Please model this.
Amino acid sequence: MKKLLSIATLALFAVSCTRQVNTPSNNDNGNSINSTTVTGNFSITKFTDNSSVDDHATDFAGYSFQFTNDGKIIATKGSFREEGSYSEKPSHEGEGAKLTINFSSDALKEISKSWLIVSITDSEIDLRDDDPSSNEVLQFSAL
Model:
């Protein structure tokens, strides 16, 4: 009996020490995301702000957003180019995973904030405001 109890305890310990890395979730509350990786070139395909459920993605028509491995996000539109930053925070203690975007220009201030990660794939980044009463949604699609 002691031997069986020892094996069960060892198995439970081994399972509890397992860690999941770099596996985005399609869970719409973002709580199961442990780590994410954002890289590539994207455009904004959906953006609703706090004051409206209307889609304002057309405000960003023609922009390309390049997410780099070193935390930079480079926005370009014609001759306009702005380098901002982004950071990812994994979910922790019931708080959903977040993607924080920072730009200094007025043209991009609407998307500069911390967003809850709904899902991240190679082809799409789905984000939403962490305030449940907000209608803010931001979606990037790969170019």
The first strand starts at residue 40 and ends at 48. Strands lie at 40-48, 64-67, 72-77, 80-89, 98-102, 113-120, 124-128, 137-142. Residues 33-142 form a domain with the Lipocalin fold (CATH 2.40.128.270). DSSP finds one helix and eight strands in the chain.
